[in-house]
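Entry 14. Ran structure prediction on the chain below.
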Amino acid sequence: MKKHTKTAKKETKKSAKTNETLEKNYMSTVKRVALDAKAPSKKSMRLPRTKTPKTTDAAKKDDGVARTAEDLVIIDKDEKKDGKMSGLDAAAKVLTETGTAMNCGDIVKTALDKGYWTTNGKTPAATIYAAIIREIAVKGSAARFAKADRGMFKINQ
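Output, C-alpha cells:
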C-alpha cells in the first residue's frame, strides 16, 4: 500500500506541476492578448483631428484672440522694414496689374523682374503656389486669389 500512495503522490505532483505550467502559459497568453488589445497601434497613437475652426497668424489680433476664417476681414499687411513685400503680396500685385490668369512660374518671374519680391530659394514658384493654395483654403471666398484653371490663378473680385 505504501508503493501505491508514493506513486499516487508523484502523479499528483506531476499533474499539479503540469496544471501549474498550463495555467502559467494560459495566464501569460491571456495577459499578452490583453496587453495587445490595450496597446495602441501606430495609427491610434496619432492625435485625432479636431473640428475647431481654422485660424491664421493674420487672423490673430494684438489682443491675442484668434479669429476664425469666417470672421476674418482681409487685413492689409504692413510692408517689411526693408521696403520689400512678401511673396503673396507681390503675387497679388502682379495679378492685379495684369488682370489675367497666370501660372505661378509667370507670377514669380514678373514679380522678380519688377523687383517686388526677392528670394534665394530654389523653387520660388512652388513656394508661391503652396502659399496661394493655403490662403484659398483658409480664407475661402475672402481670399485675394481664385483658381482660374489647373495651375492658373487670378485675382478674386
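The first strand starts at residue 102 and ends at 103. Will compare against last week's run tomorrow.
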